[in-house]
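Posting this for the archive.
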Amino acid sequence: MSGASIFTIDALNATGSNSNQASFQFPTASVPEPGMLGLFGLGLTGLAFLRRRRSIQS
């Protein structure tokens, strides 16, 4: 899930009511799933195997 995280700080005055409020927004990045990285690795391994096999046959 990508988007932004919002962090809010409320400051109370002496009477207990909210007098100040500050909000901060931080960008977040999505992280690829381990399964996707594994599938990508298998694809690269397969391509390397085919290239090696073709060079041995030549």
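The chain has a mean pLDDT of 78. The radius of gyration is 26 Å.
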